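Example 5.3 — ribose-phosphate diphosphokinase
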Amino acid sequence: MNYTVPEPKIFACTQSEELAEKIAKHYGTDLGKVTFSTYSDGEFQPSFEESVRGARVFIIGSTFPNSDHLMQMLLMLDAAKRASARHITAVLPYFGWARQDRKDKPRVPIGAKLIAKMLEVAGATRIITMDLHADQIQGFFEKPVDHLFASTVFLPYLRKLNLDNLMIASPDMGGSKRAYAYSKFLECDVVICYKQRKKANVISHMELIGDVTGKNVVLVDDMVDTAGTLTKAAEVMMEKGALSVRAICTHPILSGQAYERIENSPLEELIVTDSIPLRQKSSKIKVVSCAHLFADVMQRVQNNTSISSKFLM
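Solution (predicted structure tokens):
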């Protein structure tokens, strides 16, 4: 008796509907039908409006705050599990709570590991995500994790700029590995920013390790939150003789006064992906879609083929 593997079904959490529609289009299918019922107190319940029995299900949703976005993903994973889906892949373009990846002081949680366990308990049999804040977060999962790199969409954009005297920069010591990976492919030098913080999101002091005189600098980071570090780094680099400063940040969290800081900064442009939808438009922010990257990897997962060619770092 021949058994035909059912075509996968792709569903979206509400916070990532726009990106999910692009992914489904690149994949060559339509988004599955899901509805949300909401109670007067804010509690909500997802419902798949089509059968997922025996199918491979992809559920797309970035888990940036508020916590309702994470809760949507968890409830949809549980619904798919209870509806007898064969494989359930949580597609998290942005894996939220990732900055809590270790105990850096007493009596604090390791939030990233807690989220990993919650996703698995809810029903995820595989995770696809992009540019985790820390690579070791993959080890918090007992299920397979496909950790994609946004460099596959950013590098072609950078090459098209044809910048002379290009230099890659990391806004902190922790991002030096990412910066060196970009510099390897672009065959250019690297400068590192050394910063000291008073508290979270507040920088007290910043120094440069390297010379940016006469260089077109591109700062590379995994996320931009308040944009304090990026704009401070851009100011310091321009003061040190840089010709121009751009920034590449995968996940545009952009909270607080981030938009205002970016507009008033010496940054030529901030290049981001659509892993998180922008709250407002900005003349300095350029969005490069990651939809084709996720669609391609999802097709390879469905067909059980290698995805190693998607790892440029």
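Remark. The radius of gyration is 20 Å.
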